[in-house]
Amino acid sequence: MFVRLIRRGAFGLLVSLIFFYAVFPFYWAIVSSLRTGQALFSTDLVPHSFDVRNYVAVFAEQPFGLNILNSLLVAGTTVLLSLALAVPACYALGRIAFRGRVPLLFAFLGVSMFPQIAVLSGMFEIIQALGLYNRLLGLSLCYLLVTLPLTVWVLTAFMRDLPREIEEAALVDGASPLLLVWRILLPLMAPAIMATGLLAFIAAWNEFLFALTFTISSETRTVPVAIALISGATGYELPWGNVMAASVTVTLPLVVLVLIFQRRIVAGLTVGAIKT
Question: What does pTM read for this prediction?
Answer without folding.
Answer: 0.84
